[in-house]
Amino acid sequence: MTQLPYAKTALALVAALSLTACAQFEPRPLTEQALSDQSRADQESARQDVEPIAGTLTLDEAMARALKYNLDRRARMFEEALAFQQYDVSRYDMLPKLLAQAGYSSRNNDKISQSRNAEDGSLSQSRFISQDRDHTVSSLALSWNMLDLGVGYYGARQQADRALVAGEKRRKAMHLLMQDVRTAFWRAVSAQKLQSEVRAATLLAEGALTDSRQAEAERLRNPIDSLRYQRQVLENLRLLEAIEQELSTAQTELALLINAPLGQPITLAEPPFQLDRQALDVPVAVMEDTALGANADLREAHYNARIAREETRKTLVRLFPSLNFSYGLNYDTDSYLVNRQWNEAGAQLSFNLFNLLTGPSQLKLAEAGVALADQRRVSMQMAVLAQVHLARQQLANAQHQFTRADAIWEIDRRIAEHMDNREAIQVQSKLDQVANQTTAILSLLRRYQALAQAQTAEARLQATMGVDPEIGSVSDLTLAQLTRTLTDGQRTWQKLAADAGQGGTQ
Length: 506
Fold this sequence. Notes:
Layout: H1 4-21, H2 32-47, H3 59-69, H4 71-90, E1 97-106, E2 112-113, E3 128-129, E4 134-145, H5 146-217, H6 223-248, H7 250-258, H8 284-294, H9 296-318, E5 322-332, E6 341-350, H10 355-424, H11 430-465, H12 479-488, H13 492-505
Antiparallel strand pairs: 1-4, 2-3, 4-5, 5-6
Helix pairs in contact: 3-5, 3-12, 4-5, 5-6, 5-7, 5-9, 5-11, 6-11, 8-10, 9-10, 10-11
């Protein structure tokens, strides 16, 4: 009876813990202060270790900043690092299990046993205490399952391929990022170049519109002529406003890509207006071979096919019997034991008989996954080859469009010079001045756009071929070193043309 209060207390504690586990928690929405604090912390994290822009920003430095500071690229790099960490962890699945255990046992009375006579079924009068009321048990056991070893081996190989897939996704994101930076940079350059000219032409057009409306009110001209004049001025104003709206977001897009402070003006260094026409000198066969060996999507398809094959092997291993080896060291403080410390070894063979029924279906499922992965790889290979031809043709078209836009701009520039001479002798009207300035601005804008499209087409062709800049680890390079590496590495087409020449001479 002395143990009854102890038992009641233990039951009360168990009941209290059970009720606590069933307790309901109310949803806790984030407060405005918590959101504000987290937003400030996130902004500080985004700007951490980002060098401020000093002086003018070149195209190579913009791409270097994007590679080093772009937030989406950082996320891709973290994904790749996470995949490699998962691979490192998966390798430990092949190790044996080493289990250390310790326990305490207590009861409120003695463990007493009796024996029964096998012949007449009578109980013996003797009673035996066979265990201490309180004792501790500890053990250290090593077990190794051969089935788990095989499954873990193929799982680790799959995880290694998944880590390589993450690397290919990072490469693809890098190609798209550099392509977007080129486009945004040239749009920002055109905005910087044309901003003052657009504003001057807009002011001139608004002045001409005001003068025309005043002349109409004073009936100094034919009303029809005045309205036609105003319509032409308004049409030019609409074009100027459309140009200004198109260029107004260029700096913000570039700042987002290179992780620069939003709203802060960026002075850009305008690169020379020239095209690298050596890309079209590379034979198409060389481009196809390069893409088949380096395209990020195609390499990812190869890795996925390999993962599917490893899944087939892993499925086959699961169908084998499970063989488990174990060895343990045990110790018990029970005083009734003659041997309180003992070593124990064992081997166990087990087999799930239902595998005889489900095995063929599991193998067919795994083989279907392999067939699907192979078909996707074949489809991706043909798509990549088509993309190479399309990207090459788009580059040729873009370069042709730039040549045409450059010729048109040259003519408009010469026309503008003649109109400036006429303006000096006050021969032309304000409408002519507005129209000529609008035409010149629109022609220059199209020239910038054509060059940006040509640059984008060249970057798209490089991305399709899977040509990477040889920059090594971005985190190990400073911004200046990365910029110099990108500047010195603009020899992609020369190398491919040289390799093609060497291959043709052999």
